[in-house]
Structure formats: structure tokens, C-alpha cells
Write a structure and sequence with these properties.
Layout lengths: L17 H15 L9 H7 L12 E2 L2 E5 L4 E2 L13 E2 L8 H9 L5 E3 L3
Antiparallel strand pairs: 1-2, 2-5, 3-4
């Protein structure tokens, strides 16, 4: 039996899914190229249907830089979350010094955007 769903609820993301971008661009292509069949037209087929073009997720920009989600294997002390000099532990590389924190971090995936440094 499926889980109950709250009325008037929606799921939000911190990014725009690539599939949503592909649908928006395809709709625009169809509107501009009236009368052309997307499935038959070679350009339309290559752009949207046969996998030639890969539409990636669109993440927000922060301070003029591209951002990406923080890996769920990363964690830091809660009171240091906004400190740029905080120690970041990566559970994918080494276990946490505190096993209880390791278990909590694995149960609580968090999506945050971090700026890439160039």
C-alpha cells in the first residue's frame, strides 16, 4: 500500500532537474519548428531523444561561481557549519572519530551547494 500523501503538498529541490530542462528546451524547439516531427527530424532526435545530448541538473550560482551539492559523505561539527575554516570529515575516505556521528550522518543526507574554487 502506498504511503499517505498530504493534501496540497509538493516536493522542492535545490536545483532544476536535467529532465525538466530537457522538456523545456524540447517544448521551445517544437514551438519554433512548427510542422516538424521531433522524432523524425535528425536535429530534434539528436537533441532530445537518442541520448546524444545530456541535460545535467542546474544548480544555483553563489557569489558568481558555479555550485554543486555537498557530498553526503561530508560532515562537520554542527556549531562550525558556517565557519569557513571548519574541519570537514569525509566518511568516504576515513571513518568518523565518533561512530555515533557517522551513523547519524549516514541516516541524514543533506543537499547543500558549495562553491567550486578555481
Amino acid at each position: 500500500m502506498p504511503a499517505p500523501v498530504k493534501k496540497n503538498s509538493a516536493v522542492g529541490f535545490d536545483y532544476i532537474p536535467g529532465s525538466t530542462l530537457r522538456g523545456a528546451v524540447a517544448a521551445r524547439w517544437v514551438a519554433v519548428h512548427k510542422g516538424l516531427d521531433l522524432a523524425i527530424n535528425p536535429a530534434g532526435r539528436a537533441g532530445f531523444l537518442d541520448g546524444t545530448v545530456c541535460y545535467l541538473n542546474a544548480y544555483p550560482e553563489y557569489d558568481g561561481k558555479r555550485t554543486l551539492p555537498t557530498p553526503t559523505s561530508w560532515f562537520t561539527e554542527k556549531d562550525q557549519a558556517n565557519d569557513s575554516s571548519a574541519m570537514i570529515h569525509d566518511l568516504a575516505v576515513s571513518p568518523s572519530p565518533d561512530p555515533q556521528r557517522t551513523e547519524a550522518a549516514q541516516r541524514r543526507p543533506v543537499l547543500q551547494a558549495v562553491a567550486l574554487r578555481t
